[in-house]
Amino acid sequence: MMNLDIKQDNLYLLLPSKVSLMTEMLCDDTGMSVVDAMKRIYASRTYHQLEQ
Asked: Domain segments of the chain: what residues?
């Protein structure tokens, strides 16, 4: 059976899908480009908190 526990050592597996969703939402809400949205997300306090 697969271990589905989310821990600090496997959290990195979830972040790309979350960033993708956040990028899409930001693009839809603001009309900015995907690259600009991703740059904003990766530089954000929210992203840094998600990494923790």
From this structure: 12-51
